[in-house]
TrEMBL record:
It comes from Candidatus Fermentithermobacillus carboniphilus. It comes from the Bacteria. This is M55 family metallopeptidase. Keywords: Metal-binding, Zinc. Zn(2+) 2 binds at residues 8, 58, 102, 133. Zn(2+) 1 binds at residues 8, 10.
Length: 277
């Protein structure tokens, strides 16, 4: 049994404010996050996993400490990956976990709520419905026929995950959101115990959890933070301009649409300040 784990950071316990991911706080979070991942890996192997692939999926994607990672797993580290937070996923996997995940921008007062690239994106709609990273990435796993069976993050993220993926998935609430920059946190050891147990339960019932399949055509409509971002994305003819800050892409299938979405976000990031090559 092969398990794939995508790991963001904002949803880990220990993160209530952006301050917790800066300077010494960031170094500490790398350690805490690696411990959360290890707890999920331990649960996976106890449940019968034979292979676990971890994909570092926050910021520069160089957060997880390989020297501290459970030696039975392997890690994809670094960025510039076509499938971004889901690099390495394919049809050979049996189940997916999302650890350290966060709610989409504008979902109540969720901790550090944003959608993929907070500096560039106000909102992403998939076939008309507002989505966050959980639904977007679950759709990518679904395109390969793999179900997301465990999601961990704050209480609002966990509700968001169940809304898209069904009540049957396992969730671990690592903290309760008070504001975008405040939360009531559970201590790491408690979260790790919860994660290990949830991982075991999730894999025991994986066959009863349906992959999150979005049939083509798949359209992503992106509302950018600045007009320059929407403008410059239209350098490629596949991108449609729908408003000063609104663009849309529609590929031949889910994976193709997703790649176009990620391409737009990379352009948008550069367009924020103008070309500085
Ligand atoms: Zn992140």
């Amino acid at each position: 049994m092969k398990v794939y784990i995508s790991v963001d950071m904002e949803g880990g316990t220990g993160v209530a404010s952006a301050k917790h991911m800066e300077d010494a706080g960031y170094t500490r979070m790398c350690k805490l996050l690696t411990q959360e991942v290890n707890a999920a890996i331990a649960g996976a192997f106890e449940a019968g996993a034979t292979e676990v692939l971890v994909n570092d999926a926050h910021g520069s994607m160089t957060n997880i400490l390989i020297e501290d990672l459970d030696e039975r797993a392997e890690l994809i580290s670094g960025s510039n990956k076509w499938l971004c937070q889901m690099e390495g996923i394919d049809e050979t996997f049996d189940a997916v976990f999302f650890i350290g995940y966060h709610a989409h921008e504008g979902n109540e007062d969720a901790v550090l709520n944003h959608t993929i690239m907070g500096t560039a994106v106000t909102e992403i709609r998939r076939n008309g419905i507002v989505v966050g990273e959980t639904a977007i990435n679950a759709g990518l796993a679904g395109a390969y026929g793999v179900p997301v069976v465990l999601v961990a993050g704050d209480d609002i993220l966990c509700a968001e995950a169940k809304r898209f993926l069904g009540d049957n998935i396992e969730t671990v609430i690592t903290k309760r959101a008070i504001d975008r920059y405040a939360a009531r946190l559970l201590p790491p050891k408690r979260v790790q115990t919860l994660l290990k147990e949830a991982a075991k339960r999730a894999l025991a019932k994986k066959d009863s959890i349906k992959p999150h399949v979005v049939e083509p055509p798949v359209e992503f409509q992106i509302t950018t933070k600045l007009t320059s971002m929407a403008h410059m994305c239209c350098v490629f003819p596949v991108v449609e301009r729908r408003g000063p800050k609104v663009i849309a892409v529609k590929g031949k299938d889910y994976v193709d649409s997703y790649k176009q979405l990620i391409g737009c976000l990379m352009i948008a990031k550069v367009a924020a300040t103008g070309w500085i090559g």
